[in-house]
From TrEMBL:
Family according to the record: Belongs to the methyltransferase superfamily. NTM1 family.
EC number assigned by the record: 2.1.1.244
Any one GO molecular-function label of the UniProt entry: N-terminal protein N-methyltransferase activity
Region (Disordered): 1-25
Organism, scientific name: Naegleria lovaniensis
Keywords for this protein: Methyltransferase, S-adenosyl-L-methionine, Transferase
GO BP of this protein: methylation
Name recorded for this polypeptide: Alpha N-terminal protein methyltransferase 1
Enzyme class: transferase
InterPro entries listed in its UniProt record: MeTrfase_NTM1, SAM-dependent_MTases_sf
Gene3D superfamilies, per database record: Vaccinia Virus protein VP39
One GO cellular component term: cytoplasm
Reactions this protein catalyses: N-terminal L-prolyl-L-prolyl-L-lysyl-[protein] + 2 S-adenosyl-L-methionine = N-terminal N,N-dimethyl-L-prolyl-L-prolyl-L-lysyl-[protein] + 2 S-adenosyl-L-homocysteine + 2 H(+); N-terminal L-seryl-L-prolyl-L-lysyl-[protein] + 3 S-adenosyl-L-methionine = N-terminal N,N,N-trimethyl-L-seryl-L-prolyl-L-lysyl-[protein] + 3 S-adenosyl-L-homocysteine + 3 H(+); N-terminal L-alanyl-L-prolyl-L-lysyl-[protein] + 3 S-adenosyl-L-methionine = N-terminal N,N,N-trimethyl-L-alanyl-L-prolyl-L-lysyl-[protein] + 3 S-adenosyl-L-homocysteine + 3 H(+)
């Protein structure tokens, strides 16, 4: 994903790198009820062309066609290099990776590796991997195997060329990741890393993705998000269609899956560039299945 300036809010903004979305419908499931109780969220488009009085008003208007603009943007308008991944803000790469590394080192401390014979290993799924900027420079330092998902197949080809630890790649939109794992029978990953791409999901598909990750992760595994954060109001980007949420908005969505995951970290990126959206890193730890069954 890439950093991007926001002109629609007094907050700083970073815009995501690899959108990882396409226009196939989401999987059928139990309806997700979102009443946004306690959230006082107004919204605006990045060019000030439209305002929204609430999240409900925005989704009533935008949800049906939410993925179209992002799919076109990431398949047709982004170059397959680090400059494209970071939206021209290449100079923030090192500080992004440095802070992510400190965060990941901390949250991985209590994650139990699996074993191949006598050899322990850790397996990560990266969503919205783009051409492997984060894969190569961050995740490969902590994981033995990495699978990558992105909507742009050319990005994934480069990611695999750049990092020998990449095993499988999934050229599918993030909201359709369930189609890749529809026959999954057991956990596969110790960590799922999602950076600068959940902003391309509707709120309902965001929750569905977390529920999918519950099935993909080993007990005690971790689900990590690193995303732009709005402060005054949510911001809808007029170029790529992304939605920059507030910290309260993310925490509200996490509360919808609290029987399956516990939010163990919520930290702000340090030493970030002024004029960009603030960044936050979240870590959700999977409850084991026995604990989850008792909570239901």
């Amino acid at each position: 994903m890439a950093p991007t300036r926001s002109n629609a809010s007094s907050s700083s903004e970073v815009k995501p790198q690899n959108s990882s979305v396409d226009v196939v419908a989401s999987s059928p499931s139990t309806p997700i009820v979102l009443d946004y109780a306690g959230l006082k969220e107004r919204g605006i488009t990045s060019g000030y062309t439209r305002r929204f009085a609430s999240l409900k008003e925005f989704w009533d208007i935008a949800e049906a066609d939410f993925y179209k603009k992002a799919t076109e943007y990431w398949k047709e308008k982004v170059t397959n290099d680090i400059d494209g991944m970071l939206g021209g803000f290449t100079h923030v790469h090192e500080r992004d990776v440095k802070e992510s590394s400190s965060f990941l080192k901390k949250v991985l401390q209590d994650v139990t590796p699996s074993r191949e014979g006598e050899k322990p290993f850790l397996y990560c799924l990266e969503c919205g991997s783009g051409n492997g900027r984060v894969t190569k420079n961050l995740l490969s330092q902590y994981f033995d195997y990495i699978d990558c998902e992105d909507v742009n197949e050319e990005f994934l080809i480069k990611a695999k060329e750049e990092c020998a630890k990449v095993k499988e790649t999934f050229a599918v939109g993030l909201q359709n990741l369930h189609t890749v794992f529809k026959d999954a029978r057991k956990p596969k990953y110790h960590c799922v890393w999602i950076q600068w791409c959940s902003c391309f999901l509707t709120d309902r598909d965001f929750i569905k993705l977390i529920e999918l990750c519950y099935d993909l992760l080993y007990d005690g595994g971790i689900l990590c998000f690193k995303e732009n954060i709005a402060t005054d109001c949510f911001v809808v980007d007029e170029d790529d269609g992304s939605l920059t949420r507030s910290n309260d908005h993310y925490c509200y969505l996490f509360s919808k899956v609290e029987s399956k995951f516990t939010l163990i970290e919520n930290v702000k990126q340090k030493n970030w560039e002024k004029g960009l959206f603030a960044l936050r890193m979240y870590c959700l730890k999977k409850s084991n299945r026995e604990e989850h069954s008792h909570q239901q």
